[in-house]
Amino acid sequence: MSNFTSNKISINHISATFNINFEDFISGVERLAGHVNADEVLKASPSTFKQTIKSMEGEGGLIIFGKLDHGVLFGMDGTPKKALRYYIGNPLIAYTMTKHDIRAALYAPLIVLIFEQGPGTVTVEYDQPSTLFGQFGVEPVTSVGLDLDAKLEALLSKAASTEN
User: Going by C-beta distance under 8 Å and a sequence separation of 6 or more, which residues neighbour residue 111?
Assistant: First the structure.
């Protein structure tokens, strides 16, 4: 017999709106963040794993692991939208948390939704890393979450700037 438990937690949900063209913002995010190369990761030995990951890092050490075009779903009713869901993180950063509490793996990589609010307006939404990871009450995990708050905000703010 399974024993399920439930805990209520408080998560801060972040929403940021930027006055920038959707394509320009996405281009900035994808240029600034690193990109995972699964073939290289799979070939990496324990002695080269860390360097392999470091070679993929972008702004703030963040890496895009994948993206899902959620906007395409609206094409079913003939009104496709511009909405992308990104999976952003870093295995080295994740390990600094999961070695203290494996439950941190529930939220690594982070999920970031970017969508066009209207012409020239982009909205970004995500759950604040420090509140996701802070729920476990493990100081080293919470500390990394606070660091991720700043890294993600910096990446997104820089992608929205004209000098990105």
Answer: 85, 86, 87, 88, 126, 127
Distance CA 113, CA 68 (A): 9
Over the range 80-104, which residues count as b (16 or more CB within 10 Å of their CB) and which as e?
eebbbbbbbbbbebbbbbbebeeeb
Residue with tokens 């998560």: 11
Residue 9 identity = I
pTM higher than 0.70, yes or no? Answer: yes
Q: Can you give the residue ranges of every domain in the chain?
A: 15-160
User: Domain spanning 15-160: which superfamily?
Assistant: TT1751-like domain (3.30.310.70)
Ordered DSSP codes for 42-71: HH--TTTHHHHHHTT--GGG-EEEEEEE-G
DSSP string, 110-125: EEEEEEEEETTEEEEE
Q: What angle do CA 117, 122, 145 make, to 5 degrees?
A: 120
Tens digit of each residue's pLDDT, the chain (164 residues): 679 999 999 999 999 999 999 999 999 999 999 999 888 888 888 899 999 999 999 999 999 999 999 999 988 898 889 999 999 999 999 999 999 999 999 999 999 999 999 999 999 999 999 999 999 999 999 999 999 999 999 999 999 996 65
